[in-house]
């Protein structure tokens, strides 16, 4: 009996060692996920347009000076590259080097966009005693030729347009918000007067920029970027609430979930950090955790990303869930 128990323990420890070795290897490799996005009435000018998505780096490094990740990216032919948030580990982090080193090594940044995640700092300083300006992290990203997407970014080919938009701004009713800003009164000589004036002027400018969408042609392509996936319940809420406008998005791209981070064979993700699922974010619908899905005629693609979250500190690793970068190819849907 003792021999049997000893053999069982030895076998168990052997499996644990194998799992640890495998997980270390699996957490440090880079996979490429490719997906065709079928779009009705896609203009010929954007047939085969490729978008490379990088998300949830979480300060992770892939080789010395990010060389393995940089090489993987530079080996890909793409038309636009988008970073969908959580490049840092926390909004208080000053460890910008993994992100900056990565961006510096990327060759094709002709159309390079960034939207922040919950682990990244706010786009602008929030201290009214300071000038209204972008924070240090965003300044560094833009200095390296990646644009902060706050409203709308247009790629024009022939008579057709492809719009990248910040999802959260795009759902606002622009004219109503602009009127609210115009009607806002600020006490003179208030300590925050200059800051608030600059902030409101900036918000008005963004709303005016994104109001371009109100005049979209049916042949134009609309791609929204967001860190958080837009779950079915939120889409229903936006569609039913007159305070918002849910547009005819051809595609929404997001990250945040890490594919569940811990995945089990035949089961999938055990948990995703999703406020719309609370109080129970455990055992989420597996077809809403990663990859492509469609709801209410809106396609959405969610990447599992590259790093890992310390939402549960002892579980800051990925299990059966290798890091990934993603290439989405726009194709015309046959009628």
TrEMBL record:
Q: Where is the Calcineurin-like phosphoesterase domain?
A: 49-259
Is this entry keyworded Membrane?
yes
**Record-linked Gene3D superfamilies:** 3.60.21.10
Going by the UniProt record, its keywords in alphabetical order are: Membrane, Transmembrane, Transmembrane helix
Enumerate the InterPro entries for this protein.
Calcineurin-like_PHP, Metallo-depent_PP-like, Metallophosphoesterase_sf
Molecular functions per Gene Ontology: hydrolase activity
Kindly list the residue ranges recorded as spanning the membrane.
Answer: 7-25
Tell me yes or no: is Isomerase among this UniProt entry's keywords: no
Could you name the domain of life of the organism this protein comes from?
Answer: Bacteria
Could you tell me what this protein is called?
Answer: Calcineurin-like phosphoesterase domain-containing protein
